[in-house]
Amino acid sequence: MPTLNSKQPNILLIVADDLGWSDIGAFGGEINTPHLDEIVSKGVRMTNFHASPVCSTTRAMLMTGCDHHEVGLGNLAELMTPLQRNKPGYEGYLNERASTLPELLRDGGYLTLMSGKWHLGIEGESPPASRGFERSFALMQGEHNHFGLDQTPETSGFLGTSSYMLDGSKTSYPEGSYSSDVFADYLCNFMEEAKDDERPIFSYLAFTAPHCPLQAPKALTEKYKGRYDDGPIALRQRRQARMRELELHAGEASPAVMLDVALWEELDEMKKRKEARKMEVYAAMVEAMDAAIGRVMDTLADTGRADNCIVVFISDNGPSGVLRETLPGWEDWIASHANNNIDNIGNPNSYVSIGPSWAQAQAAPYFLFKRFTTEGGIRTCAIAAGPEIKQRAECREFIHVMDLVPTLLEFAQVDATPSKGKLPMRGKSASEPLRGNEDGRSVSREPIGWELGYGRAIFKDGWKAVYLPAAARAISDDLPVEQWLLFNTKEDPGENHDLAAREPDVLQNLVQAWFEYAHEVGVVIP
Protein backbone atom coordinates (compact mmCIF):
# COMPACT_ATOMS: atom_id res chain seq x y z
CA MET A 1 0.00 0.00 0.00
CA PRO A 2 1.51 3.37 -0.97
CA THR A 3 2.12 5.96 1.72
CA LEU A 4 2.53 9.59 0.77
CA ASN A 5 4.78 11.57 3.09
CA SER A 6 3.62 15.12 2.56
CA LYS A 7 3.67 17.08 5.80
CA GLN A 8 0.47 18.77 4.72
CA PRO A 9 -2.58 16.65 5.59
CA ASN A 10 -5.10 15.49 3.08
CA ILE A 11 -8.56 16.96 3.76
CA LEU A 12 -11.96 15.38 3.19
CA LEU A 13 -14.86 17.78 3.75
CA ILE A 14 -18.28 16.10 3.66
CA VAL A 15 -21.64 17.90 3.68
CA ALA A 16 -25.03 16.25 4.21
CA ASP A 17 -28.17 17.99 2.99
CA ASP A 18 -30.93 18.67 5.57
CA LEU A 19 -29.68 16.07 8.06
CA GLY A 20 -31.14 16.22 11.57
CA TRP A 21 -28.90 16.81 14.58
CA SER A 22 -29.75 13.44 16.14
CA ASP A 23 -30.03 11.27 13.00
CA ILE A 24 -26.73 9.40 13.00
CA GLY A 25 -25.81 6.77 15.56
CA ALA A 26 -23.06 8.78 17.23
CA PHE A 27 -25.51 11.61 17.98
CA GLY A 28 -28.23 9.40 19.44
CA GLY A 29 -29.96 8.17 16.31
CA GLU A 30 -31.15 4.68 15.50
CA ILE A 31 -30.13 4.85 11.82
CA ASN A 32 -27.31 2.51 10.82
CA THR A 33 -24.29 4.77 10.22
CA PRO A 34 -21.20 2.64 11.01
CA HIS A 35 -18.75 4.64 8.92
CA LEU A 36 -19.66 8.01 10.41
CA ASP A 37 -19.65 6.41 13.86
CA GLU A 38 -16.15 5.07 13.14
CA ILE A 39 -14.95 8.57 12.23
CA VAL A 40 -16.41 9.86 15.51
CA SER A 41 -14.60 7.12 17.45
CA LYS A 42 -11.30 8.51 16.17
CA GLY A 43 -12.22 12.18 16.50
CA VAL A 44 -14.74 14.45 18.15
CA ARG A 45 -18.34 15.55 17.85
CA MET A 46 -18.65 19.33 17.42
CA THR A 47 -21.86 19.59 19.42
CA ASN A 48 -22.07 23.40 19.37
CA PHE A 49 -21.57 23.79 15.62
CA HIS A 50 -23.72 26.34 13.79
CA ALA A 51 -24.55 26.94 10.14
CA SER A 52 -27.12 28.98 8.23
CA PRO A 53 -30.82 28.04 8.18
CA VAL A 54 -30.65 26.87 4.52
CA CYS A 55 -28.30 25.12 2.16
CA SER A 56 -26.76 27.54 -0.35
CA THR A 57 -26.16 30.25 2.24
CA THR A 58 -24.23 27.75 4.39
CA ARG A 59 -22.26 26.54 1.37
CA ALA A 60 -21.32 30.12 0.46
CA MET A 61 -19.84 30.61 3.93
CA LEU A 62 -18.19 27.17 3.86
CA MET A 63 -16.39 28.06 0.64
CA THR A 64 -15.25 31.55 1.70
CA GLY A 65 -15.19 32.06 5.47
CA CYS A 66 -17.29 35.19 4.84
CA ASP A 67 -20.92 35.96 5.59
CA HIS A 68 -23.25 34.79 2.83
CA HIS A 69 -24.70 38.30 2.40
CA GLU A 70 -21.24 39.47 1.33
CA VAL A 71 -20.59 36.84 -1.31
CA GLY A 72 -23.75 36.72 -3.41
CA LEU A 73 -26.16 34.47 -1.51
CA GLY A 74 -27.95 36.97 0.72
CA ASN A 75 -30.96 34.74 0.15
CA LEU A 76 -31.60 31.52 -1.72
CA ALA A 77 -31.52 32.36 -5.42
CA GLU A 78 -34.92 30.70 -5.77
CA LEU A 79 -36.43 32.93 -3.06
CA MET A 80 -34.97 36.33 -3.93
CA THR A 81 -37.58 39.06 -3.58
CA PRO A 82 -37.85 41.96 -6.06
CA LEU A 83 -36.44 44.20 -3.33
CA GLN A 84 -33.36 41.99 -2.99
CA ARG A 85 -32.66 40.84 -6.53
CA ASN A 86 -29.45 42.19 -8.05
CA LYS A 87 -28.55 44.19 -4.96
CA PRO A 88 -24.88 43.81 -3.90
CA GLY A 89 -24.57 40.47 -2.14
CA TYR A 90 -27.81 39.19 -3.69
CA GLU A 91 -26.51 38.16 -7.10
CA GLY A 92 -27.81 34.62 -6.57
CA TYR A 93 -24.42 33.01 -7.16
CA LEU A 94 -21.01 33.02 -5.49
CA ASN A 95 -19.59 36.38 -6.48
CA GLU A 96 -15.94 37.34 -6.88
CA ARG A 97 -15.57 39.39 -3.69
CA ALA A 98 -13.92 36.60 -1.69
CA SER A 99 -11.23 34.00 -2.23
CA THR A 100 -12.53 30.45 -1.93
CA LEU A 101 -11.14 27.64 0.19
CA PRO A 102 -10.22 25.50 -2.85
CA GLU A 103 -8.53 28.48 -4.52
CA LEU A 104 -6.37 29.12 -1.47
CA LEU A 105 -5.57 25.43 -1.01
CA ARG A 106 -4.75 24.99 -4.70
CA ASP A 107 -2.39 27.94 -4.53
CA GLY A 108 -0.92 26.36 -1.37
CA GLY A 109 0.04 23.17 -3.16
CA TYR A 110 -3.13 21.06 -2.98
CA LEU A 111 -4.93 19.04 -5.62
CA THR A 112 -8.58 20.09 -5.30
CA LEU A 113 -11.47 17.70 -6.02
CA MET A 114 -15.23 18.07 -5.70
CA SER A 115 -18.26 15.85 -6.23
CA GLY A 116 -21.88 16.57 -5.37
CA LYS A 117 -24.22 19.50 -4.91
CA TRP A 118 -22.90 22.97 -5.72
CA HIS A 119 -25.96 25.29 -5.51
CA LEU A 120 -23.78 28.39 -5.73
CA GLY A 121 -24.66 29.33 -9.29
CA ILE A 122 -25.68 27.49 -12.44
CA GLU A 123 -23.81 27.17 -15.74
CA GLY A 124 -21.82 30.31 -16.42
CA GLU A 125 -22.39 31.59 -12.88
CA SER A 126 -19.37 30.65 -10.81
CA PRO A 127 -19.19 26.86 -11.42
CA PRO A 128 -16.76 24.77 -9.33
CA ALA A 129 -14.19 24.66 -12.11
CA SER A 130 -13.87 28.46 -11.98
CA ARG A 131 -13.65 28.64 -8.17
CA GLY A 132 -10.59 26.52 -7.49
CA PHE A 133 -11.55 22.89 -8.16
CA GLU A 134 -9.27 21.09 -10.61
CA ARG A 135 -11.66 18.16 -10.95
CA SER A 136 -15.38 18.36 -10.25
CA PHE A 137 -18.68 16.62 -10.90
CA ALA A 138 -21.48 18.86 -9.72
CA LEU A 139 -25.25 19.14 -9.52
CA MET A 140 -25.68 22.84 -10.14
CA GLN A 141 -29.13 23.28 -8.57
CA GLY A 142 -30.30 22.77 -5.01
CA GLU A 143 -32.13 19.47 -5.43
CA HIS A 144 -32.84 16.74 -7.96
CA ASN A 145 -34.46 13.36 -8.43
CA HIS A 146 -32.11 11.00 -6.60
CA PHE A 147 -32.23 8.56 -9.53
CA GLY A 148 -31.68 11.20 -12.20
CA LEU A 149 -35.16 11.28 -13.71
CA ASP A 150 -35.42 15.06 -14.05
CA GLN A 151 -32.81 15.99 -16.63
CA THR A 152 -35.05 16.79 -19.59
CA PRO A 153 -38.07 19.09 -20.01
CA GLU A 154 -40.26 16.00 -20.34
CA THR A 155 -39.17 14.58 -16.97
CA SER A 156 -38.21 17.74 -15.07
CA GLY A 157 -39.50 18.43 -11.59
CA PHE A 158 -41.48 21.43 -10.42
CA LEU A 159 -38.29 23.52 -10.26
CA GLY A 160 -37.29 22.58 -13.81
CA THR A 161 -34.53 20.43 -15.23
CA SER A 162 -31.50 19.46 -13.19
CA SER A 163 -28.11 20.16 -14.74
CA TYR A 164 -24.68 18.73 -14.06
CA MET A 165 -21.13 19.76 -14.89
CA LEU A 166 -18.02 17.65 -15.21
CA ASP A 167 -15.07 19.97 -14.72
CA GLY A 168 -16.00 22.94 -16.90
CA SER A 169 -18.47 21.29 -19.25
CA LYS A 170 -22.11 20.25 -19.12
CA THR A 171 -22.66 16.55 -18.65
CA SER A 172 -25.48 14.16 -17.84
CA TYR A 173 -26.27 12.13 -14.76
CA PRO A 174 -26.08 8.31 -15.04
CA GLU A 175 -29.85 7.86 -14.92
CA GLY A 176 -31.04 5.05 -12.67
CA SER A 177 -28.04 5.26 -10.34
CA TYR A 178 -28.55 6.52 -6.80
CA SER A 179 -27.27 10.00 -5.96
CA SER A 180 -25.06 9.18 -2.98
CA ASP A 181 -23.43 6.34 -4.94
CA VAL A 182 -22.85 8.55 -7.98
CA PHE A 183 -21.24 11.35 -6.00
CA ALA A 184 -18.99 8.94 -4.08
CA ASP A 185 -18.01 7.06 -7.25
CA TYR A 186 -16.92 10.24 -9.03
CA LEU A 187 -14.83 11.33 -6.06
CA CYS A 188 -13.26 7.88 -5.71
CA ASN A 189 -12.39 7.91 -9.41
CA PHE A 190 -10.78 11.34 -9.07
CA MET A 191 -8.73 10.08 -6.10
CA GLU A 192 -7.63 6.94 -7.92
CA GLU A 193 -6.60 8.94 -10.98
CA ALA A 194 -4.43 11.07 -8.67
CA LYS A 195 -2.79 8.19 -6.79
CA ASP A 196 0.63 9.10 -8.16
CA ASP A 197 0.19 12.83 -7.63
CA GLU A 198 2.47 13.86 -4.78
CA ARG A 199 0.35 16.83 -3.80
CA PRO A 200 -1.94 16.53 -0.78
CA ILE A 201 -5.61 16.34 -1.72
CA PHE A 202 -8.53 18.51 -0.69
CA SER A 203 -11.77 16.64 -1.43
CA TYR A 204 -15.23 18.16 -1.11
CA LEU A 205 -18.08 15.62 -1.06
CA ALA A 206 -21.49 17.29 -1.01
CA PHE A 207 -24.45 14.92 -0.83
CA THR A 208 -28.06 15.70 -1.68
CA ALA A 209 -29.24 13.17 0.92
CA PRO A 210 -31.48 13.27 2.84
CA HIS A 211 -33.01 16.31 1.04
CA CYS A 212 -36.44 15.69 -0.48
CA PRO A 213 -37.76 14.02 -2.54
CA LEU A 214 -37.48 11.09 -0.14
CA GLN A 215 -36.10 8.37 -2.38
CA ALA A 216 -33.82 5.44 -1.60
CA PRO A 217 -32.87 1.95 -2.79
CA LYS A 218 -35.82 -0.24 -1.86
CA ALA A 219 -33.74 -2.94 -0.16
CA LEU A 220 -32.37 -0.40 2.30
CA THR A 221 -35.82 1.03 2.99
CA GLU A 222 -37.18 -2.42 3.84
CA LYS A 223 -34.57 -2.75 6.60
CA TYR A 224 -36.40 -0.04 8.54
CA LYS A 225 -39.92 -1.38 8.11
CA GLY A 226 -41.79 -1.07 11.39
CA ARG A 227 -39.03 0.96 13.07
CA TYR A 228 -41.10 4.15 13.20
CA ASP A 229 -44.56 2.77 13.82
CA ASP A 230 -44.90 4.58 17.16
CA GLY A 231 -44.48 8.09 15.74
CA PRO A 232 -42.26 11.17 16.09
CA ILE A 233 -42.73 11.91 19.79
CA ALA A 234 -41.62 8.40 20.73
CA LEU A 235 -38.69 8.68 18.33
CA ARG A 236 -37.47 11.87 19.95
CA GLN A 237 -37.73 10.35 23.41
CA ARG A 238 -35.66 7.34 22.35
CA ARG A 239 -33.02 9.53 20.77
CA GLN A 240 -32.61 11.73 23.78
CA ALA A 241 -32.34 8.67 26.02
CA ARG A 242 -29.59 7.40 23.75
CA MET A 243 -27.80 10.77 24.01
CA ARG A 244 -27.75 10.32 27.76
CA GLU A 245 -26.26 6.84 27.35
CA LEU A 246 -23.56 8.38 25.16
CA GLU A 247 -23.01 11.03 27.87
CA LEU A 248 -23.64 13.85 25.43
CA HIS A 249 -24.47 17.21 26.96
CA ALA A 250 -27.55 17.50 24.72
CA GLY A 251 -29.04 14.46 26.41
CA GLU A 252 -29.46 16.46 29.62
CA ALA A 253 -31.11 19.44 27.91
CA SER A 254 -34.79 20.15 28.41
CA PRO A 255 -36.09 19.33 24.94
CA ALA A 256 -37.82 21.98 22.88
CA VAL A 257 -41.57 22.02 22.71
CA MET A 258 -42.84 20.10 19.67
CA LEU A 259 -45.41 22.28 17.93
CA ASP A 260 -48.64 21.07 16.35
CA VAL A 261 -47.70 17.40 16.37
CA ALA A 262 -50.85 15.31 16.00
CA LEU A 263 -51.27 12.65 18.66
CA TRP A 264 -50.13 9.47 16.97
CA GLU A 265 -52.88 7.36 18.48
CA GLU A 266 -55.51 9.68 16.96
CA LEU A 267 -54.33 9.11 13.39
CA ASP A 268 -56.05 6.47 11.29
CA GLU A 269 -54.03 3.41 10.32
CA MET A 270 -53.51 4.54 6.71
CA LYS A 271 -52.09 7.89 7.84
CA LYS A 272 -49.82 6.20 10.38
CA ARG A 273 -48.50 3.80 7.79
CA LYS A 274 -47.79 6.57 5.27
CA GLU A 275 -46.00 8.69 7.85
CA ALA A 276 -43.94 5.74 9.08
CA ARG A 277 -43.04 4.83 5.49
CA LYS A 278 -41.67 8.32 4.88
CA MET A 279 -39.38 8.01 7.87
CA GLU A 280 -38.28 4.53 6.73
CA VAL A 281 -37.20 5.97 3.39
CA TYR A 282 -35.48 8.89 5.12
CA ALA A 283 -33.48 6.47 7.29
CA ALA A 284 -32.50 4.49 4.21
CA MET A 285 -31.23 7.69 2.56
CA VAL A 286 -28.99 8.37 5.55
CA GLU A 287 -27.68 4.79 5.60
CA ALA A 288 -26.97 4.93 1.86
CA MET A 289 -25.02 8.15 2.37
CA ASP A 290 -23.03 6.53 5.17
CA ALA A 291 -22.18 3.55 2.97
CA ALA A 292 -20.98 5.92 0.26
CA ILE A 293 -18.75 7.67 2.79
CA GLY A 294 -17.32 4.26 3.68
CA ARG A 295 -16.29 3.69 0.07
CA VAL A 296 -14.57 7.07 -0.06
CA MET A 297 -12.71 6.27 3.18
CA ASP A 298 -11.62 2.94 1.67
CA THR A 299 -10.32 4.74 -1.40
CA LEU A 300 -8.32 7.11 0.79
CA ALA A 301 -6.75 4.08 2.42
CA ASP A 302 -6.10 2.30 -0.89
CA THR A 303 -4.34 5.36 -2.29
CA GLY A 304 -2.20 5.84 0.81
CA ARG A 305 -3.84 9.04 2.01
CA ALA A 306 -5.95 7.89 4.97
CA ASP A 307 -3.39 8.03 7.77
CA ASN A 308 -2.66 11.70 7.17
CA CYS A 309 -6.18 12.94 6.51
CA ILE A 310 -8.41 15.42 8.30
CA VAL A 311 -12.07 14.48 7.90
CA VAL A 312 -14.82 17.00 8.62
CA PHE A 313 -18.49 16.09 8.29
CA ILE A 314 -21.36 18.57 8.74
CA SER A 315 -24.99 19.05 7.84
CA ASP A 316 -25.68 22.26 5.95
CA ASN A 317 -28.69 23.13 8.16
CA GLY A 318 -31.28 21.48 10.33
CA PRO A 319 -33.85 18.98 9.01
CA SER A 320 -36.50 20.27 6.64
CA GLY A 321 -39.99 20.65 8.06
CA VAL A 322 -41.63 21.88 4.86
CA LEU A 323 -44.33 19.65 3.34
CA ARG A 324 -43.84 20.20 -0.37
CA GLU A 325 -47.02 18.22 -1.01
CA THR A 326 -49.08 21.11 0.42
CA LEU A 327 -47.26 24.13 -1.08
CA PRO A 328 -48.80 26.25 -3.86
CA GLY A 329 -47.60 25.01 -7.22
CA TRP A 330 -45.88 22.01 -5.74
CA GLU A 331 -49.14 20.42 -4.62
CA ASP A 332 -50.59 20.38 -8.14
CA TRP A 333 -47.34 19.24 -9.73
CA ILE A 334 -46.90 16.37 -7.29
CA ALA A 335 -50.51 15.28 -7.67
CA SER A 336 -50.08 15.20 -11.47
CA HIS A 337 -46.60 13.68 -11.74
CA ALA A 338 -45.86 11.52 -8.69
CA ASN A 339 -47.17 8.18 -7.51
CA ASN A 340 -47.30 8.55 -3.75
CA ASN A 341 -49.18 5.39 -2.95
CA ILE A 342 -47.76 3.94 0.27
CA ASP A 343 -46.07 0.99 -1.44
CA ASN A 344 -44.45 3.30 -4.00
CA ILE A 345 -43.05 5.93 -1.63
CA GLY A 346 -39.29 6.05 -2.00
CA ASN A 347 -39.24 4.95 -5.63
CA PRO A 348 -37.92 7.22 -8.42
CA ASN A 349 -41.42 8.29 -9.51
CA SER A 350 -42.58 9.29 -6.00
CA TYR A 351 -42.27 12.69 -4.35
CA VAL A 352 -42.79 13.11 -0.61
CA SER A 353 -41.12 15.25 2.03
CA ILE A 354 -40.65 14.52 5.71
CA GLY A 355 -42.81 17.27 7.24
CA PRO A 356 -42.70 19.22 10.52
CA SER A 357 -43.49 16.42 12.99
CA TRP A 358 -40.63 14.12 12.00
CA ALA A 359 -38.32 17.11 11.45
CA GLN A 360 -38.79 18.22 15.05
CA ALA A 361 -37.87 14.72 16.21
CA GLN A 362 -34.79 14.72 13.96
CA ALA A 363 -33.67 18.06 15.41
CA ALA A 364 -33.92 16.76 18.99
CA PRO A 365 -33.45 18.33 21.46
CA TYR A 366 -33.48 21.66 19.61
CA PHE A 367 -36.31 23.99 18.54
CA LEU A 368 -37.86 23.99 15.06
CA PHE A 369 -35.89 23.16 11.91
CA LYS A 370 -34.53 24.37 8.57
CA ARG A 371 -35.33 27.96 7.48
CA PHE A 372 -35.54 29.23 11.06
CA THR A 373 -32.76 30.80 13.12
CA THR A 374 -33.71 28.78 16.18
CA GLU A 375 -31.23 26.10 17.26
CA GLY A 376 -33.11 23.38 15.37
CA GLY A 377 -32.47 25.26 12.14
CA ILE A 378 -28.85 26.31 12.63
CA ARG A 379 -27.20 23.97 15.19
CA THR A 380 -26.16 21.03 13.06
CA CYS A 381 -24.55 17.64 13.36
CA ALA A 382 -20.77 18.01 12.89
CA ILE A 383 -17.68 15.77 13.28
CA ALA A 384 -13.93 16.24 12.94
CA ALA A 385 -11.13 13.67 13.02
CA GLY A 386 -7.52 13.35 11.91
CA PRO A 387 -4.04 14.63 12.68
CA GLU A 388 -3.90 17.12 15.58
CA ILE A 389 -7.60 16.64 16.43
CA LYS A 390 -7.97 15.23 19.92
CA GLN A 391 -10.19 12.18 20.27
CA ARG A 392 -12.90 12.70 22.89
CA ALA A 393 -16.68 12.61 23.24
CA GLU A 394 -17.48 16.18 22.27
CA CYS A 395 -16.17 19.68 21.71
CA ARG A 396 -18.69 22.11 23.22
CA GLU A 397 -17.00 25.28 21.99
CA PHE A 398 -19.16 27.46 19.72
CA ILE A 399 -17.94 26.90 16.15
CA HIS A 400 -19.51 28.56 13.11
CA VAL A 401 -19.39 27.19 9.58
CA MET A 402 -17.33 30.26 8.57
CA ASP A 403 -14.67 29.09 11.04
CA LEU A 404 -13.94 25.96 9.02
CA VAL A 405 -12.12 27.87 6.27
CA PRO A 406 -9.38 29.41 8.47
CA THR A 407 -9.28 26.22 10.56
CA LEU A 408 -8.60 23.95 7.59
CA LEU A 409 -6.12 26.40 6.11
CA GLU A 410 -4.22 26.42 9.42
CA PHE A 411 -4.12 22.63 9.58
CA ALA A 412 -3.02 22.61 5.92
CA GLN A 413 -0.22 25.10 6.67
CA VAL A 414 -1.58 27.42 3.99
CA ASP A 415 -1.73 31.19 4.40
CA ALA A 416 -5.32 32.25 5.13
CA THR A 417 -4.73 35.79 3.91
CA PRO A 418 -7.20 36.45 1.08
CA SER A 419 -5.90 37.38 -2.33
CA LYS A 420 -5.31 41.07 -3.01
CA GLY A 421 -8.56 43.00 -3.13
CA LYS A 422 -10.62 40.19 -1.64
CA LEU A 423 -12.74 40.34 1.52
CA PRO A 424 -11.19 39.41 4.86
CA MET A 425 -12.68 36.33 6.46
CA ARG A 426 -15.15 36.65 9.32
CA GLY A 427 -14.47 33.10 10.43
CA LYS A 428 -11.97 32.45 13.22
CA SER A 429 -9.77 29.38 13.43
CA ALA A 430 -11.15 26.67 15.70
CA SER A 431 -7.88 24.72 15.68
CA GLU A 432 -7.28 25.06 19.43
CA PRO A 433 -10.60 23.65 20.63
CA LEU A 434 -10.31 20.86 18.07
CA ARG A 435 -6.86 20.07 19.42
CA GLY A 436 -8.48 19.78 22.83
CA ASN A 437 -7.36 23.13 24.20
CA GLU A 438 -10.76 24.76 24.68
CA ASP A 439 -9.14 27.38 26.90
CA GLY A 440 -6.96 28.37 23.98
CA ARG A 441 -9.72 30.25 22.24
CA SER A 442 -11.77 32.70 24.23
CA VAL A 443 -15.46 31.87 24.38
CA SER A 444 -16.05 35.64 24.40
CA ARG A 445 -16.04 36.34 20.68
CA GLU A 446 -17.72 39.08 18.75
CA PRO A 447 -21.44 38.65 18.11
CA ILE A 448 -22.40 36.25 15.33
CA GLY A 449 -25.48 37.23 13.35
CA TRP A 450 -27.94 35.41 11.09
CA GLU A 451 -30.60 36.60 8.66
CA LEU A 452 -32.73 34.71 6.19
CA GLY A 453 -36.14 35.56 4.78
CA TYR A 454 -36.44 38.32 7.42
CA GLY A 455 -35.86 35.82 10.21
CA ARG A 456 -32.96 36.94 12.42
CA ALA A 457 -30.71 35.90 15.27
CA ILE A 458 -27.63 37.17 17.10
CA PHE A 459 -25.37 35.22 19.45
CA LYS A 460 -22.77 36.31 22.00
CA ASP A 461 -21.37 34.57 25.08
CA GLY A 462 -24.21 32.07 25.33
CA TRP A 463 -26.96 34.67 24.93
CA LYS A 464 -29.04 34.50 21.78
CA ALA A 465 -31.75 36.81 20.48
CA VAL A 466 -34.16 35.39 17.89
CA TYR A 467 -36.68 37.11 15.62
CA LEU A 468 -39.12 34.76 13.89
CA PRO A 469 -40.65 35.99 10.62
CA ALA A 470 -44.38 36.03 10.01
CA ALA A 471 -43.97 32.92 7.85
CA ALA A 472 -43.40 30.93 11.03
CA ARG A 473 -47.14 31.16 11.68
CA ALA A 474 -47.52 28.41 9.09
CA ILE A 475 -45.99 26.07 11.70
CA SER A 476 -48.16 27.20 14.59
CA ASP A 477 -50.42 30.10 15.43
CA ASP A 478 -48.89 30.04 18.91
CA LEU A 479 -45.43 31.11 17.75
CA PRO A 480 -44.47 34.67 18.79
CA VAL A 481 -43.55 36.12 15.42
CA GLU A 482 -42.08 39.51 14.45
CA GLN A 483 -40.71 40.23 17.89
CA TRP A 484 -37.34 39.66 19.51
CA LEU A 485 -37.01 36.71 21.89
CA LEU A 486 -34.08 36.13 24.24
CA PHE A 487 -32.57 32.81 25.30
CA ASN A 488 -29.65 31.69 27.44
CA THR A 489 -28.48 28.82 25.27
CA LYS A 490 -25.99 27.56 27.84
CA GLU A 491 -28.75 26.88 30.35
CA ASP A 492 -31.63 26.46 27.91
CA PRO A 493 -30.38 25.10 24.56
CA GLY A 494 -33.92 23.96 23.76
CA GLU A 495 -35.00 27.63 23.72
CA ASN A 496 -37.97 27.00 25.98
CA HIS A 497 -37.78 30.13 28.15
CA ASP A 498 -37.96 33.60 26.63
CA LEU A 499 -36.05 35.97 28.94
CA ALA A 500 -36.72 39.17 27.00
CA ALA A 501 -38.84 40.71 29.76
CA ARG A 502 -36.44 39.64 32.51
CA GLU A 503 -33.22 40.79 30.79
CA PRO A 504 -34.15 43.86 28.71
CA ASP A 505 -30.64 45.32 28.74
CA VAL A 506 -29.11 42.10 27.41
CA LEU A 507 -31.72 41.98 24.67
CA GLN A 508 -31.28 45.65 23.74
CA ASN A 509 -27.52 45.21 23.38
CA LEU A 510 -27.96 42.13 21.23
CA VAL A 511 -30.56 43.76 18.98
CA GLN A 512 -28.29 46.76 18.49
CA ALA A 513 -25.47 44.35 17.63
CA TRP A 514 -27.71 42.64 15.09
CA PHE A 515 -28.43 45.88 13.26
CA GLU A 516 -24.70 46.66 13.23
CA TYR A 517 -24.05 43.20 11.77
CA ALA A 518 -26.79 43.69 9.17
CA HIS A 519 -25.27 46.99 8.11
CA GLU A 520 -21.75 45.53 7.89
CA VAL A 521 -22.69 42.59 5.67
CA GLY A 522 -25.33 44.36 3.56
CA VAL A 523 -28.57 42.74 4.66
CA VAL A 524 -31.50 44.14 2.65
CA ILE A 525 -34.08 44.92 5.32
CA PRO A 526 -37.68 45.63 4.24
Q: What do you see in this structure?
A:
The strands form three sheets. Strands 7-6-5-4-8-1-9-10-2-11 form a ten-stranded mixed beta sheet, sandwiched between helices. Helix 4 packs parallel to helix 7 and helix 6 (231-245) runs parallel beside helix 9. The protein has two domains: 10-434, Alkaline Phosphatase, subunit A (3-Layer(aba) Sandwich); 443-526, Arylsulfatase, C-terminal domain (2-Layer Sandwich). The protein has helices spanning 34-41, 55-64, 101-107, 179-193, 218-223, 231-245, 269-302, 330-337, 355-362, 375-378, 404-411, 431-435, 504-521, and strands at 10-16, 43-46, 49-50, 111-117, 135-139, 164-166, 169-171, 201-206, 309-315, 382-385, 394-395, 399-400, 448-452, 455-460, 463-467, 484-488. By secondary structure, it is α/β, with parallel strands linked by helices. Strand 14 (455-460) and strand 15 (463-467) form a beta hairpin.
Provide keyphrases for this structure.
single chain; 526 residues; alpha/beta; Arylsulfatase, C-terminal domain; ten-stranded mixed beta sheet; four-stranded antiparallel beta sheet; 16 strands; disordered N terminus
